Amino acid sequence: MFYFSHLGTPYVIAIDTGLYSLAQLNGVLGRFFVNNSLPKNLIVFSGNDATQKTIVTFNYVGTQIDFTQANTIRTILGFNSQLVPAAPSTVVGENYESSVEAVFNRINFFYIRSTLVNNGLPINGVSGNIISQIPITAPPGSQINYSPQNVIAIEARNLIGKTIQQIRFELLDDQLRPVNTLSEYWSITLHIHSQLLLSTLTLPLIP
Q: Which of 100, 112, 152, 192 qualifies as a cystine partner to 132, CB 3.0-4.6 A?
């Protein structure tokens, strides 16, 4: 949620769950402003690349953001629980920088977990059936196509002598939480190499 006031009138914007950049966030705010007869550029967010902090610009006087509410997007933008500015803006073009770095990239990479293996890639020294780590190489809203350059072979000795009929795959974030893909499909291509034991007999040595 995004709480703000302009000329003494409070407003609340419900921001849909999704992947946002600052430009996309400005688009959401701008549409709300226009639909409520407010200037489209009433409040504009930008980034400070040097500090990774967020800058908010108030282009009209009498505007204030309320980040004291519990369900605001203040953490993502890097602001503390506060009113920005402390009193409604009095100067056109006032700028305020966030207290800490913005955390738009709350997910740094993805994992794929599968019942195909018992151990898999170790995460912090603990095996959790992870078969791949997928870096985020595309901007928000774009498709990630990833093919590892150095493929790590993962043993599946748990399959020896067993018959399986179902395999489960899960897409997880970097905290090992299931990812909500918002009804979008994802896919994985597996390369499986197997060896067949033909005999357990010991062959005689040839002199």
A: 112
- What is the rounded CA–CA span in Å between residue 54 and residue 34? 23
Candidates 122, 63, 124; CA nearest to 88 is 63
The answer to whether 68 and 80 have CB atoms below 8 angstroms apart is: no
Q: What is the 3-state secondary structure (H, E, C) of the chain?
A: CEEEEECCEEEEECCCCCCCCHHHHHHHHHHHHHHCCCCCCCEEEEEECCCCEEEEEECCCCEEEECCCCCCCHHHHCCCCCEECCCCCCCCCEEEECCCCCCCCCCCEEEEEECCCCCECEECCEECCEEEEEECCCCCCCCCCCCCCCCCCCCCHHHCCCCCCCCCEEEECCCCCECCCCCCCCCCCCCCCCCCCCCCCCCCCCC
Q: What is the pLDDT of residues 172-199, one digit of tens each?
A: 988 888 988 878 889 999 888 888 777 7
**Domain ranges (residues) in the chain:** 2-97, 109-172
